[in-house]
Amino acid sequence: MKKYLWTFVLLPCSLFAQRIDRKALVERHSVITTKMDTLASVSVGNGSFAFTVDVTGLQTFPSYYAQGVPLGTQSEWGWHSFPNTENYTLQESLKPYPHQGRQVMYAVQRGTSTREKQAVDFVRQNPHRLQLGNLGLVLLKKDGSEAQPGDLTTIRQELNMWTGAVKSHFELEGTPVDVLTYGHQTQDAVATQIQSPLLAQNRLKVRLRFPYPTNQFVDAGANYTHANQHTSRIVKQAATTAQIEHQLDQDRYSVFLNWAGKATLQAAQPHEFLLSSTEPSLSLSCLFTTQTGTAPSFVQTQTSSSNDWKKFWTSGAAIDFSGTADPRAKELERRIILSQYLTKINCTQAMPPQETGLTYNSWYGKPHLEMHWWHGVHFALWGRTDLMEKSLDWYQKTVEKARAIAQRQGYQGVRWQKMTDPEGNETPSSVGAFLIWQQPHFIYLAELCYRNQKNPAVLKKYAELVDQTAEFMASYATKEGDRYVLGKGLIPAQECFKPEETYNPTFELAYWRWALETAQQWRERQKLSRNKEWDDVLQKLSPLPQKDDVYLATESAPDSYTNPDRMIDHPAVLGALGMMPLQVGTDSSTMHRTLDVIWEKWNWDHTWGWDFPLTALTAIRLYQPERAIEALLMPVQKNTYLPNGHNFQDGRLRIYLPGNGGLLTAAAALCAGFDGNTQTNPGLPKGWKVRWEGLQKMP
Q: CA–CA separation, 623 vs 683, rounded Å?
């Protein structure tokens, strides 16, 4: 076992005389783009609404960017369902699976008949999140033809995250165009200021287009087919304002426009509207809403963005690696800053976010609750618990849907959904239906709220949901002889295992123990007695499975490290320590040996973006700082962080926000550590110099 020698010259930032210059910290990582790069688009937004732009500062080339980081306009309220003319239901996806001598009904992707497959597909695809519209430029060349991406020259775009401003410059045939773009922070609005001689020459116009939903896994907002299946019209128009209404089936919303100067709005092609100016400058704001309203002005939007982003960056935590000579520190700091910006925009809505946030659809726009830990935990560790809490109310809203799943399957309490929709409806999935590791997340997130606030009101608010979450967990564990077993009939977080064969995954066993014990502590805080049934499960829960002095992925997989098919996907076994404290039944020496084996043998090309911070978290708790940094910066495609800060996975998932959230969780642990930690900055190698403020310890 490799030993690390420590020399502690780093101090918590509270002991430094000089605080971090947060403005300088943020602005040295401004995103600067000087070429047409479909993976370098940037976004403005507020957590409930996001607007992604190309190098023109608006959404001028959505089709060109469709296979990169798409030019999305999405909101938390923007959902649509196609008419269910065949009366498809979730019940048509249900299939019995054996579990401990009885049949349990799971909603799975089944296709034994045409009707069943169609029903499953419909329920998976509906509702889907909408791309609300494309707001871009029409650029005309001297010969009257519309400019294409290759016609733009002298490109320079800068995203200043301190103010939320996107400043874009380019030239078309030698004529300059300058665009300034902001997102409003309390309204679903975007504002732009355009300056160019091309405006007065009638060679530059602003175009608003409404795409049609794809009903596919991905929706990049560039589907202009099916023009006759939706409607768009100008409802109201005045000298400097207008309302445009868009309707798809039963769903309707409006875009309210507000501009300064002389400009004319007119309908062009179906679902396309053009705003033309006779002056070389045009300011325009667009508010997307299902309600009546008035778009805020450009100045109001600019002020909202500047003030709120400054407030965001000056509150909560900060990490400054500028004193470290190791070049890895600069890249890590860049990823940390950009990930804070991206998760604030994409992951702070009133429900758990989808894995691609508010940029483009993955899995039809639906969130996966097992990812909520990776989306949300970091906010609490960075002193922004309020941003994490915004999505916790959704669990209360949807609790009866979760209770219905548990009752259907013969369990107590509530079984939290995996892939779901705004109303908490379950989505059929041949993998997701069998996952259980999303179940303890609510207890973890609620515990973070309590730790950071120490307020009896937090106990009162979340106690019932904590209790009901634990009720399911205790009833799900099945007594076999003198021990409780998880499974068969589950798929662990490492999803390469078959549910019919799998039982007692190491990570889930550890997470069950931690969550049930934490739920008992919640009872004690409320002056209630411990639940005897939960204690019985805790006392007799199966031990973490081992072979050759390392932890197995599951008790049913003794070939965890000899079968190549077992060494892909998430190395979830590491979560038994990385995501939670050392507890009864977990041995740090055994986990150290397990990490050594995984580090050497794992197929890292077949992982996901949050696996690298997971590995780092385990290394931090084992006091292996060099390995923690190596894990966070491992040169593997799935660990790529694009110039705009997005965690690139592959051609399907060009962005992956659980990676960004996981990075921020690991970054907090690098410095602040975890409960019981005795070292200063336990995840940082010798010689690294850091200043940090406001970080919280992990449980």
A: 7
